[in-house]
Automatic annotation (TrEMBL):
<dbReference type="GO" id="GO:0003677">
    <property type="term" value="F:DNA binding"/>
</dbReference>
<keyword id="KW-0805">Transcription regulation</keyword>
<dbReference type="GO" id="GO:0047134">
    <property type="term" value="F:protein-disulfide reductase [NAD(P)H] activity"/>
</dbReference>
<dbReference type="GO" id="GO:0046872">
    <property type="term" value="F:metal ion binding"/>
</dbReference>
<keyword id="KW-0804">Transcription</keyword>
<feature type="binding site">
    <location>
        <position position="37"/>
    </location>
    <ligand>
        <name>[4Fe-4S] cluster</name>
    </ligand>
</feature>
<feature type="binding site">
    <location>
        <position position="15"/>
    </location>
    <ligand>
        <name>[4Fe-4S] cluster</name>
    </ligand>
</feature>
<protein>
    <recommendedName>
        <fullName>Transcriptional regulator WhiB</fullName>
    </recommendedName>
</protein>
<feature type="binding site">
    <location>
        <position position="40"/>
    </location>
    <ligand>
        <name>[4Fe-4S] cluster</name>
    </ligand>
</feature>
<dbReference type="GO" id="GO:0045892">
    <property type="term" value="P:negative regulation of DNA-templated transcription"/>
</dbReference>
<feature type="binding site">
    <location>
        <position position="46"/>
    </location>
    <ligand>
        <name>[4Fe-4S] cluster</name>
    </ligand>
</feature>
<keyword id="KW-0408">Iron</keyword>
<comment type="function">
    <text>Acts as a transcriptional regulator. Probably redox-responsive. The apo- but not holo-form probably binds DNA.</text>
</comment>
<dbReference type="GO" id="GO:0005737">
    <property type="term" value="C:cytoplasm"/>
</dbReference>
<dbReference type="InterPro" id="IPR003482">
    <property type="entry name" value="Whib"/>
</dbReference>
<keyword id="KW-1015">Disulfide bond</keyword>
<dbReference type="GO" id="GO:0045454">
    <property type="term" value="P:cell redox homeostasis"/>
</dbReference>
Amino acid sequence: MVEDDQDTWGARALCRTADPEELFAEGAAQNRAKAICTGCPVRTECLAHALDHRIEHGIWGGMTERERRSLLRRRPLVTSWRRLLEAARSEHEQRAAPGDEPAWDAAG
Ligand code: SF4
């Protein structure tokens, strides 16, 4: 398992040169922000960080705060989103065809 070191994965973030205001947008503008995340190589790490640290604002890992709250409500017993998402990604990579979205995207 990779440590949750935001300095390490953050250096590979697709949004590192984006305007921070874009990632903390409201309403329809959130869809533009989420689109930035689609091809981000550290999307799993980013989402896990936000979920494990209960970050309430902004787009993280392609999910809005509302989507993350919903996910946290549905899975109250998860103690490490990092561990869970890493395992899901590994399983997904072993099973899925290239280009398929990870399962947590479909859970919305
Ligand atoms: S998933 Fe999105 S918010 Fe997170 S680091 Fe990547 S581009 Fe930035």
